């Protein structure tokens, strides 16, 4: 039996808009707040058309103050609303860090569940689009290391919509990171209406027995290219899109490395303190005796993201990933 | 600026009328209710300091001297309204519905101290400075969007006005015209830093001007001034007439917390002098004597019964069984993600609990 579902070809940024639209239609209490999200439709057009459809009481142009946006969203969330707060760029979230760290992430714990903060913070992030300074930061680890927050990163339009809907339905605060490089890089069939891509579940993009590759967001494109090159050299990669960075999909990571005995972890965030370290310890905890080679990491460097003339040097490339794949297979 | 924002007062330090606008409402019943609540909170506060000295609770944050500000304002709030206190505002939260036991539990380092009574919108004490102004704005905004007439009140000190969140809170509340009362207790010191080093502004109330908001300055040791002017601000908020910034001038006699010594940064003779002259409870006592509402026997009985109530709360606090470590694990998310579950299990195992 086949079910016919109407689909549309959408870019990731259009899929994000569609996810918000679907949930705003369904739930009166879902509102969008942020800088330029109203008439302008957001600097990336992620909220394009929403103010016309839902009005300025639900799609709210706020003053230019990230702590203010997140702090008032916390109050709105505690009192019956489901705010989707847009940060213009993840690199601009720092003034709101205190609100997330000391309140959003721990109000449930502090009050033993009396108050909760069901909100979503959306933020475009990552380098590779020739953006000005500070616009390209990849600081997801600040939040994966923050008890009480879920952190998710889609890498394609289908996941973006389905994961955003799941994030909006989640009873706890979710940081929803949108890789800028993926915003318009590809179009995909995206179902109309509501569907869920569950949080906490990774996706296997390619099946292989030789090396596990773990990546997320904009790095998926890079590792897919690398896996193709590796395949031409006879190395079959198990490519995993992590999708949710907290909590990680432990089972899929363990299952994959227990099959391959080799792993390459790729992210554009700095190596030290990056998610790669967490994945490494997870492999250690679950699969140490299955490993046939030390795990390789291909990451951004322990430097500030450089201005864009140097960003291609900073970002992990398919070539570096291929070298890492060869290193673990030749160990 | 002091002229533009005069210190509003209803009774002076000698307990004499200076503004009779609300005279018909200032009944013996209301006066005694206010006195009772102020004495209750003062006795609670002294008990808190003593319990800390005896090692029976952790660090304690005393508020003695600020009772009129907290109680007058809290009494102006209604059922269903929202309250956002700092760690020095137990007089406000006990007036609004927290049990004394819960307040002691907070300083005993227990999570239950953050849990509001059923149906009461009392946020746990905000520890980072000024961050709670935004939550009060957000919850009040939600009430406005829902179309209710509920409001929020948020407490903060003079030091908090230097934080960015103070300004963001006022600005958001002003731009979106939300029903919130920003209640500042200006006790002159942020731990050790006097207000002259905190700001060049002569008043805090004047900061409302920048946000096109109603700003008022009042004698924070005159419980009537605090009650009636806060009530007016709350009424305005309920009618959709926007937020208000209230500056209540007051003083804490003691330390910032039981972990510091105020004589290091402040002449404690000033505190002793204020205790004699401007104390909020003494002022109300003088007023009651002037108005023939005072009765020694009533006052003695009141103190005895409040003391008994506080002792009972201490007993309840101390008799609570120790918290279970699962409380730490089980409330971070609606449903534990695997890392927390596996850590919880490993910890239980390390203790031989399973």
Short description:
Chain A has 331 residues and is an alpha/beta fold. Chain A contains 12 helices and 14 strands.
Written description of the protein model:
The complex is a heterodimer of chains A (331) and B (354). Chain A is built from 12 helices and 14 strands. Chain A is α/β, with parallel strands linked by helices and 331 residues long. Chain A has a 7-stranded mixed beta sheet with strand order 3-2-4-5-7-6-12, with helices on both faces. In chain A, strands 9-11-10-13-14 form a 5-stranded mixed beta sheet, with helices on both faces. Chain A starts with 6 loop residues before the first strand and ends with a helix. Chain B has 2 domains: 317 residues, Thiamin diphosphate (ThDP)-binding fold, Pyr/PP domains (Rossmann fold), CATH 3.40.50.970; 30 residues, no CATH class. In chain B, the strands form 2 sheets. Chain B has a 7-stranded parallel beta sheet with strand order 1-8-9-5-4-2-3, sandwiched between helices. The chains are: A alpha/beta (331), B alpha/beta (354). Chains A and B meet through helix 3, helix 4 and helix 5 of A and helix 5 and helix 6 of B.
Which labels suit this protein?
heterodimer; A: 331 residues; Rossmann fold; 7-stranded mixed sheet; 12 helices; 20% strand; B: 354 residues; alpha/beta; 13 helices; 45% helix; 10% strand; globular
């Amino acid at each position: 039996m086949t079910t016919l579902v109407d689909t549309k070809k959408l870019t990731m940024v259009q899929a994000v808009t569609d996810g918000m639209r679907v949930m705003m239609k369904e739930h009166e209490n879902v509102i969008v707040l942020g800088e330029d999200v109203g008439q302008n439709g957001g600097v990336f057009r992620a909220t394009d058309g929403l103010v016309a459809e839902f009005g300025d009481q639900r799609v709210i142009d706020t003053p230019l103050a990230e702590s203010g946006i997140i702090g008032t969203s916390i109050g709105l969330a505690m009192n019956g609303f489901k705010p989707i707060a847009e940060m213009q760029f993840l690199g601009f979230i720092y003034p709101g860090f205190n609100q997330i760290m000391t309140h959003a992430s721990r109000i449930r714990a502090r009050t033993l569940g009396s108050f909760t903060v069901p909100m979503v913070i959306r933020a475009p992030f990552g380098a590779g689009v020739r953006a000005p300074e500070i616009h390209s930061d990849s600081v997801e680890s600040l939040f994966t290391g923050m008890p009480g927050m879920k952190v998710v990163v889609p890498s394609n339009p289908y996941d973006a919509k389905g994961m955003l809907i799941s994030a909006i339905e989640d009873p706890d605060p979710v940081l929803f990171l949108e890789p800028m490089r993926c915003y318009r890089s590809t179009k995909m069939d995206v179902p109309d209406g509501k569907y869920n891509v569950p949080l906490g579940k990774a996706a296997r993009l390619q099946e292989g027995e030789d090396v596990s590759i773990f990546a997320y967001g904009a790095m998926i494109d890079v590792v897919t290219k690398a896996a193709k090159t590796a395949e031409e050299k006879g190395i079959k990669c198990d490519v995993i899109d992590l999708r949710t960075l907290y909590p990680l999909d432990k089972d899929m990571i363990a299952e994959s490395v227990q099959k391959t005995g080799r792993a390459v972890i790729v992210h554009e965030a700095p190596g030290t303190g990056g998610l790669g370290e967490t994945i490494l310890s997870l492999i250690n905890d679950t699969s140490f005796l299955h490993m046939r080679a030390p795990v390789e990491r291909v990451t951004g460097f322990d430097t500030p993201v450089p201005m864009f003339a140097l960003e291609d040097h900073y970002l992990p490339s398919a070539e570096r990933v291929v070298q890492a794949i060869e290193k673990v297979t030749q160990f | 600026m002091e002229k533009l924002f005069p210190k509003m007062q209803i009774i002076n330090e000698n307990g004499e009328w200076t503004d009779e606008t609300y005279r018909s409402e200032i009944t013996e019943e209301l006066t005694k209710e206010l006195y009772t609540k102020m004495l209750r909170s003062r006795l609670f506060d002294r008990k808190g300091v003593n319990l800390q000295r005896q090692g029976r609770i952790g660090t304690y944050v005393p508020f003695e001297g600020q009772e009129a500000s907290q109680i007058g304002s809290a009494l102006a709030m209604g059922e269903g309204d929202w309250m956002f206190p700092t760690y020095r505002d137990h007089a406000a939260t006990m007036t609004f519905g927290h049990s004394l036991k819960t307040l002691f539990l907070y300083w005993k380092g227990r999570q239950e101290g953050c849990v509001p009574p059923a149906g009461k919108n009392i946020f746990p004490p905000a520890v980072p400075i000024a961050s709670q102004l935004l939550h009060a704005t957000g919850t009040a905004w939600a009430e406005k969007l829902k179309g209710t007439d509920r409001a929020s009140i948020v407490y903060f000190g003079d030091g908090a006005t230097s934080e960015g969140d103070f300004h963001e809170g006022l600005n958001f509340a002003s731009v979106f015209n939300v029903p919130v009362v920003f209640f500042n207790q200006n006790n002159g010191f942020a731990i050790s830093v006097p207000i002259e080093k905190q700001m060049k502004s002569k008043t805090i109330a004047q900061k409302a001007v920048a946000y096109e908001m109603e700003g008022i300055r009042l004698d924070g040791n005159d419980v009537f001034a605090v009650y009636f002017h806060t009530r007016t601000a709350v009424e305005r908020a309920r009618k959709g007439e926007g937020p208000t910034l209230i500056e209540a001038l007051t003083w804490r006699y003691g330390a910032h917390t039981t972990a510091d010594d105020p004589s290091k940064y402040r002449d404690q003779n000033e505190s002793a002098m204020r205790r004699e002259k401007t104390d909020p409870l003494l002022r109300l006592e003088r007023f009651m004597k002037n108005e023939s509402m005072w009765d020694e026997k009533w006052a003695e009985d009141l103190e005895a019964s409040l003391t008994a109530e506080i002792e009972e709360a201490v007993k309840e606090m101390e008799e609570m069984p120790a918290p279970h470590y699962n409380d730490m694990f089980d409330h971070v998310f609606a449903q534990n993600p695997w890392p927390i579950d596996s850590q919880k299990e490993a910890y239980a195992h390390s203790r031989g609990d399973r």
